[in-house]
Amino acid sequence: MSDESRARFEVETHLPTEHGEFRVRAYTDTVTGDLHLAIISGDPKPGALVRLHSECLTGEAFGSLKCECGPQLDAALAAIHEQGGVVLYLRGHEGRGIGLLNKLRAYRLQEDGLDTVDANLALGLPADAREYAAAASALIDMGLTSVRLLTNNPAKSNALTAHGVEVIERVPLEVGRNAVNDAYMRTKALRMGHLLSDSGSSDNGHPDPLVPPSA
Ligand SMILES: Nc1nc2c(ncn2[C@@H]2O[C@H](COP(=O)(O)OP(=O)(O)OP(=O)(O)O)[C@@H](O)[C@H]2O)c(=O)[nH]1
Ligand SMILES: [Zn+2]
C-alpha cells in the first residue's frame, strides 16, 4: 500500500483551546485503524512548523512527572498557535508504540532498576515500535511536503524523510525536565540518540552535553 493512502481524512471542525483557536482534522490510519488528530493553526504552507506528538495518557491527562510529554504538548500547541502550523497527535503511539498496558508493565520493571530501553526489551518488545507512514500521509494530504519539525528525536525526522516529507529544520523542544525524569532523560540521550543539550544533572548545575551536535 502506498503511503498516500495510509491516512484517510474523516472530518474537520473548530477547536477553541486555552492556547487559542485551532482547527482539528481527523485522519484514520487505514492499516492500524488508529484515529490521528491534526491540530491546525492558521493556513499552513510547506515549511510550516509541525509537531509529531506521540500519545501519552499518563503524561498528558494525569500530569505524570515520569516523562515530559505533557509540557511538550503544551509548548508545541503554544508555539504552533503563535507561528501557524500543525500538531499531529498520533494515537497508537502510546508507550513508544507498545501500548498503555505494556508501558505500565515497563514502568513496573523500571521500579526494579531497568531503564526505559531495557524494560521494553525485557518484555520481549522493541525499544521503539512507532512508525510514521500515516503521519507522513496526513501531512502530505494537508499540502505539507516539507516541514520544520519540533522534536529532539532525529528518528522522527528520518522517518518523515523516508516517507516523502522533507524536514528542512529540526526545532528543539526541551521542556518538562524534572528531578523525577532526570535519569529517564539521560537514557533517551545516551541510548536512543535524542538530541538534548543538557544532561539535567542537578549536581553541578553545568550543561553536560551527552550527544555531540553532529551526532
Ligand atoms: N515504553 C515506554 N514508553 C514511554 C516511556 N516513557 C514515555 N513513553 C512514551 O514515549 C512516547 C514519547 O516518546 P519519547 O521517547 O519520550 O519522545 P519522542 O516523541 O521520541 O521525541 P520528542 O519528539 O523529542 O518528544 C509517548 O508515547 C510516551 O507514552 C517508558 O518508560 N517506556
Ligand atoms: Zn509521556
TrEMBL record:
Residue ranges of every copy of the GTP cyclohydrolase II domain listed in the record: 11-172
Catalytic activity: GTP + 4 H2O = 2,5-diamino-6-hydroxy-4-(5-phosphoribosylamino)-pyrimidine + formate + 2 phosphate + 3 H(+)
Keyword Metal-binding: yes
Entry EC no(s): 3.5.4.25
Source superkingdom: Bacteria
Pathway as given in its UniProt record: Cofactor biosynthesis; riboflavin biosynthesis; 5-amino-6-(D-ribitylamino)uracil from GTP: step 1/4
Functional summary from the UniProt entry: Catalyzes the conversion of GTP to 2,5-diamino-6-ribosylamino-4(3H)-pyrimidinone 5'-phosphate (DARP), formate and pyrophosphate.
Protein name per Swiss-Prot or TrEMBL: GTP cyclohydrolase-2
